[in-house]
Write a structure and sequence with these properties.
Number of strands: 11
Low-confidence stretches: 38-54, 235-242, 245-251, 256-263
Number of helices: 8
Largest sheet: 11 strands, mixed
Shape: globular
Radius of gyration: 18 Å
Helix content: 25-40%
Distance between the termini: 20 Å
Structural class: alpha+beta
Amino acid sequence: MILKEYQSIGNHQDRLNFALENKRELIAAKRDFDHTSKAFTTSPQLLKHLETAIKAEPDQDGVYKIVGNAIGFLDGHDDVSMKGSFTKTVKETGKRVKILRDHGRGIDSIIAVNKGLFIEDVDIETLGFQVMGKTEVVGARILPKYDPKIAEMYADGVIDQHSVGIQYVKLDLAVNDPYQEEEYKIWQATIDQVINREEAIERGFYFPIFEQKLKEISAVVFGSNPYTPTMDNKSLASDEPSNDTQPKDEPTEPKSHIHRKLI
C-alpha cells in the first residue's frame, strides 16, 4: 500500500520528503515486493537511443546472450542496482532461472532454455547509452526453441529489450543533502556508480540496491531499465565469465535543503 502511495507522487521533492518520512516502511515494502520492470520513465535523449534496434547474432548452436539488468542505471522506480548485487543469486540459482515472456506465470510463458547465467563487465556504449566506460550486466545465454514465433523475433532483432523479476534483499536510501547525514554518506559512497548521474542529481535521491534475488528474465517491449538488449555474441567482453553458472569519491553539489526531519 505504501509503495502505491509513493509511486503516485509525481513531484521529485514531494517524493523525496515522503521517502524520508517513511524510510523504514518504504524500504521494508520494497524488500517484500516482487519487482518486475515493466514500466519506465526516461527522457527524450534516452528515447533517441532506444530507436536503434539491436539485431544480435546467435552462436553456431542458436544461443543468444541477453542482458536482464544493467548495473548503475537509475530507473523509473528510483532504484539503482549496485555492482555485485547479483553475484550471490547467480551462484545460487544458475540455470533454474526461467526465461519468460512479459513476466508471465504460466507454463506457456517459458520461451527459451536457460543455458547459464553470467555477470560481465561491458562497454556502456554497447547497451545503447552514449557514455564512456564500463558497467556490470547480469544476463543469460538462452536457446529460444519453444515457440517458433519467438525464435523468429529474436532472429529478426524484434526482441531487443529484457526485464528481470527480482526481490530486493539489501537496499538503502541515498540523498544528496548533507543535512541528511546518514543518507548523504550513502549518496557519496554510491553516486559514482550511477551512469545517468545527471538524472540522479535532478531527483536528489535514489535507492541503491546492494543485494537482490533474480527470479526470472523476461522478453518485453520496454523495461524500466531500457539498457537490456539482446547482445551479439561478440559484443560482450569475453565468452569466459567471471561469475556465472558455467564450470569454472568526490561529493556532488547538493540540492537545496528541503527537508530537515531525520529518520
